């Protein structure tokens, strides 16, 4: 499972939970992702739930069962009466708009300001006022990913897959070719966080 998010019905702000188990037709058992932070769910509130497993996105409404708090930090949610299913492309690009910098392999050239306009788990689309990259070239993409309430600084080695000239500048399709495991997790968190809001 890639993510399980709860959002208070009529509210905002997602709560990330981990699926512990299912009692078929009766309850869904969840707990908080961070063991250092106690998960707090309101027994008087309904929650909109989104669960992504592979390429399957399920949406449903749920709430705490009577006596819904269990041992080991677990909570029991009502089993969904209605499930909405949709298929998500594994490498679906999400629309974004935040600043980043691209450093070409020529270290004598200064880093160029770009705007990240879309992103997936395997690549990103960026735009720039200047023509700074060519197809097949390797470069470094430096960005601060807004995940939750934090900005996560990441560095990714990319390969330029396509280049298009536009009226207001240039657009580049970048494939991620090398990154640390920590950065891979940050990108995954960012993409899935945005997908959960769709």
UniProtKB/TrEMBL annotation:
Cite a single Pfam family from the UniProt record. PilZ
Listed Gene3D superfamilies: predicted glycosyltransferase like domains
Q: What residue stretches are annotated with the PilZ domain?
A: 88-192
Q: Which domain of life is it from?
A: Bacteria
Any one GO molecular function term: cyclic-di-GMP binding
Name listed for the protein in its UniProt record: PilZ domain-containing protein
């Amino acid at each position: 499972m890639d993510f399980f998010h709860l959002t208070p019905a009529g509210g905002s702000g997602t709560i990330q939970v981990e699926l512990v188990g299912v009692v078929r037709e009766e309850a869904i058992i969840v707990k908080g992702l961070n063991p250092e932070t106690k998960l707090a769910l309101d027994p008087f509130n309904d929650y909109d739930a989104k669960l992504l497993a592979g390429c399957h996105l399920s949406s449903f409404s749920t709430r705490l069962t009577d006596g819904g708090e269990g041992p080991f930090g677990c909570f029991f949610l009502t089993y969904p009466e209605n499930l909405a299913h949709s298929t998500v492309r594994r490498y679906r690009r999400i629309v974004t708009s935040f600043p980043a910098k691209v450093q070409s392999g020529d270290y004598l050239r200064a880093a160029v300001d770009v705007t990240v306009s879309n992103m997936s788990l395997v690549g990103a689309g960026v735009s720039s006022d200047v023509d700074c990259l060519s197809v097949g070239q390797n470069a470094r993409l430096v960005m601060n990913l807004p995940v939750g309430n934090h900005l996560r600084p990441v560095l990714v080695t990319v390969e330029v897959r396509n280049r298009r000239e536009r009226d207001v500048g240039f657009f580049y399709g970048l494939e991620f070719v090398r990154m640390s495991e920590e950065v891979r997790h940050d990108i995954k968190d960012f993409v899935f966080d945005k997908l959960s809001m769709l």
